Amino acid sequence: MYQPRRSGGHSAQRSRAAAPSNAVAQAPRRATRRWYVAAADRAGAIFLGLAVTATAGALTLAGTATAAPAATPVTTPDTSLREGGVSREAVRPQIAAEDVLAVEAASQSTVANAGAVLQPTRTMYAKKPLTALNTPSAGAKKVASVKVAAKVTVTPQTSGKYRLVKVNGDEAWVLKTALSNSKPTENQIVDATAQAATRKVPGGSVLGLQPEAMVVYRAVMARWNVKNVGGYRTHSRSVHQFGRAIDFMTYTNTAQGYAVRDFLVAHAKEFGVDHIIYRQHIWTPYKPVWRLMEDRGNPTDNHMDHVHVAVKDR
Asked: Which end of the chain has the lower number of beta carbons within 10 A, N or C?
């Protein structure tokens, strides 16, 4: 009858008996690793090594660029200077030459400034006729005359109430208050050329003149010494019969006649002038030009010897 073999039977005993007694027991075999796992581990190690190497190189370069000092040139000392015993007080040729040039330049500048002529700086205008003097004093000698509204080249130099100017290319002194930055207007020119009267102008009405005519009378008589003046006349073809016309008798003094005439024209608006007649010419505000009149037969009727002015009733 067939019987199964039991574990540990004769076969097992024979196997154990066949094994030599001095054999070393073998270690258990490790589990086999798959090939792709090993490849991944090896690639990771390679990349890690490259990264570490690159980082170390970058740090080395940065430290070298920032911390490396500039190379200092090496010079060989000149032993002859030590043997010669150079003194600090010895004059060096280059510095001495520069000092000489500086002194010469300063000397030349001083001489030039000492002989410099004051240059004119701007142009101004005479507000009234000026008397140019040779020195800035009231008792100085007159060297030239300057007309009203004339251009005057002035300098910055002043002395008291006088200023140094150029007149006909020569230096002279004039009053500072008689100069203006802007050219005088026609009215200012006429007023400046008017002479100051020496007699007192009456305050009340004279010559039968109306108040509006008295304004003109006082203004003219305060500036010119007119010898005779005509006013109200009973029998007259003009406004003399109303006390609003004046005749300033200048006779042969035509310079005075033209001056009075121009003064009246310049202030025609404020005086309320109706018309002005002088030397057979008439002027009116509505047609402000001088026009020739007809011949009336004699010098007085033609107003050759006087200035006639009529004012409006205001």
From this structure: N
